[in-house]
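Our platform keeps sequence and structure together, in a single record for each protein. Such a record has a labelled line for the sequence and another for the backbone structure tokens. This encoding replaces a full spatial description with a residue-level series of whole-number codes. Below, we set out a record of this kind in full and without editing:
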Amino acid sequence: MPPFPLLVRDHALDHRDYVRGLTGLRGFAALWVFLYHAWVYAEPRLMTVTLPGLTLDLTPLFSMGWAGVDFFFVLSAFLLALPFAHWACGENDYPSVPRYLARRFKRIFPAYWTQLAIVLCIAAASGFYAFPDWRGLLAHAVMFFNLPPWWVTPLNSVWWTLPTEFLFYVLLVPLSLLLKNRATRFVLIALMAVAWGYRWWMVDVVRPEPMTRLIDLMGNTLGYLDIFIIGTLCAFLYVRQKRLRAYRPHPGLLLALGVLGVLLVIYSIHWLYGDYWSGHPLLILKNALIGGSIASILMAVVLGSRLAKALLANRLMLHFGIISYSIYLWHFPIVAGLSRWSFIADYDGYRLPLLLAFAVPATWLAAYCSYRWIERPFLVRRA
């Protein structure tokens, strides 16, 4: 077997839509979330570089790594909306909904249920996790997290994104119907305001306490509807411009604008951190702003940016992209567990380099095994 496994395409996509750089972009998203959690468990600190007459604050590149989730959401919406976009442009029949949903189920649940079983075994055998009651077990089985009436907190903190994304998979079916006509596409755009209104309502009307409850409530599908719609519309624009051979914006310019936009958003959150969680307008519009920037990066990749191809379509990033879902699942318990190891916990210096030295290979091994023996057998099996 080669050092990096062969690519396994998602059969939900037509081969003409497959772009290697998007797999690498998914790998980048997983690694960025991983870096964020490692930074947190190594004890958060400012990450600055001092140069002659200049100090660079690189902290947001670590502290805002949770924005990797936004990359996942935009990418998922774009890729899954492509077959529906081909239908909207009159190129294909409407995709089979049962087959589509079956593929989405196989993409998420086998690896998740496997990890859940392992985590429950660890909880039963040790005190690392608190073993849930029957309601918690049921909620975990169906991924019903941080929602009334039970407010079950997931055993693995990153699991909160899974029901958020899976519900979008379901909502994409009716939303895709809005792509067909110009008038209904405006309705789809207008639906982005639902997410803004919901986030404003959570902050200014509901004002849930503690702050973690606000984060939970804003992290559901409704709170992220705008970012999913951006990815969906991006798929339609991509298919339409190919079909009409319309003007293609320069991919290098799109990449520069997208990266600049992401940096502006994460640095603004860093600078306005206290005001941000108190209801700053940026909290309401963050998803739309960073989603638009990610969409610009995504379009740069699919339109053939040479720099994006060099950074994202190389063999290493493709490998990380292929196993990105398992990296996302496994990195958090591994980082959390290693941070308690006395060899790391009692280290006198800054622990991030030491933590990464052990967490990177451990996460890679767990993710590769999960992909090779859990994910891949389901992914290569057609519905």
Summary: The chain has one domain: 15-379. Confidence is low (pLDDT under 50) at residues 1-14. The chain is about 70% helix and 0% strand. The radius of gyration is 21 Å.
